[in-house]
Amino acid sequence: MLRRFWGVLRLLRMPVTESGDQYSVWVGLIYIFNLIVGTGALTLPAAFARAGWGLSTISLMFLAFMSFLNATYVIETMACANAVFKWKRLQTIKRESIQDHESDEDQATSRNSHGDLEEPLVCGETIPSRYYSLDRRVELGEMANLFFNKLGRTTFYCTLCIYLYGDLSIYSAAVAKSVMDVVCTPVPANVTDSRLWDELPCFNSSSPEHPGYTRLDTYRVALLTFVGAMGPFVFFNVQKTKYLQLFTSGMRWLAFTIMISMAIHLLIGRGPQGRPPAFDVTGMPTLFGACVYSFMCHHSLPGLIAPIRGKTRLGLHLFFDYALIAIFYLLLAFTGAFAFAQLSDLYTLNFIPTDSDNIFLEVVEYFLALFPVFTLSTSFPIIAITLRNNLQSLFLDTTRLESYNFILRKLVFPIVTVFPPVLLTYYLEDISILIEFTGSYAGTGIQYFIPTFLVVSARRHCSNLLGLGVVNKYKSPFSHVAWAIFVLLWSFMCIILVSVNIFEKKS
């Protein structure tokens, strides 16, 4: 019986994910890169120039650091959740083993066996590897169930669902609009009322008697096509998107390289055209509004981290990933702010060629116009899978997920995940209010408030459960309570900045 217990103990130390479902740390970092870098980066150059190159550089680097800090909080909390699950499983195995012993031996022998079974829980140098790990994927919803009270869980799920459903809606609409703008002919200059744009024919060749497809019709076809292509990924795990991630990652690097190279070429050829100030605090709210999506990945980190092989230096690798993204953002913003006298809110619009006979520039125009399609096509499945997993955590017991009905697990939750955003964006093309609320208030909660409250609660819970001697090797380097207080103060400041930004837009 004791050998069986130790055999199960060895199984507890093995990774939960199958070896065939795992990927290297570099593939995992590509996933995180794809998730962070989206269309929000295209709004950075205009906001960068408005707030001033000096203030914007400091702000962007600071936001990158704050996002990385909270990402380490998510990793630490995930390791704590793994430790709690392992501890509970060990206690169950111990009770079953002791009950079996008591049926065959007297009470004294049972006490000796009980002492043997307690040995694995004694603190020591090898204990952290048995408890704290990142092998099991524990979504933010499961962490909230473990470490939050009822009010905290309710607040968490409301915030997360608003953010993720809003993200899926924004992504769907952005891709469909990008395709519509590429396929349809440009809106005539004499049509200034944007409310009439959707009713215009998609092609100029359409006659008044037979207008054919309108721009709205094209938008809806593009929306359904996009969801039909990306939606099925929600029925699987994030590992199934590996080759899609690698392909679109190459497209992102190519798009950024083209924009940065063309801006540098313009700077060399005709000199700086833009004259952004060094500091302009009035542009700070706009800059933060543009950066709200720039470093967001926390809601999907657990699903991306769990399948990674070799997580020993995960924190260091994640730091380099953030540093690379920050450098990309700075190159993009600096070159754009000085290369162009006037910057469009969407940076790709500054690269529309004036010479239609130049085939190369035409190709670049179409490629950059479709850049949101490339970026969001990979983020959509990851966001959808994350939302599906958290909805399952909300309504199902994830410790016995396989015991539920197949239709409930494999069909109902994926459909509930994808259908509401499609329905919303099918009938509501203009979702500017949703963008402001989702990216600002819910985004601040997901990126700052939730990871901080989770890690504080997880530390307290694991200390009471396992004792202070069992060390979490995935503990955040920012473990002092002062860091948590600092993050919360910054979060309130973010809400103030976002509110000012929204008020200025409406006034």
Can you describe this structure?
The chain has a single domain (17-506), classed as Amino acid/polyamine transporter I, CATH 1.20.1740.10. The chain contains 18 helices and no strands. It has helices at 2-13, 25-36, 44-51, 53-102, 107-118, 127-131, 140-147, 150-183, 215-230, 242-270, 284-291, 301-305, 314-339, 359-369, 371-395, 406-427, 432-466, 481-506.
Q: In summary, what is this structure?
A:
This is Transmembrane protein 104 homolog. With 507 residues, this protein is mostly helical. It is built from 18 helices and no strands.
Supply database-style keywords.
disordered N terminus; single chain; AA_transpt_TM; 18 helices; globular; 68% helix; mainly alpha; Transmembrane protein 104 homolog; Amino acid/polyamine transporter I; 507 residues; glycoprotein
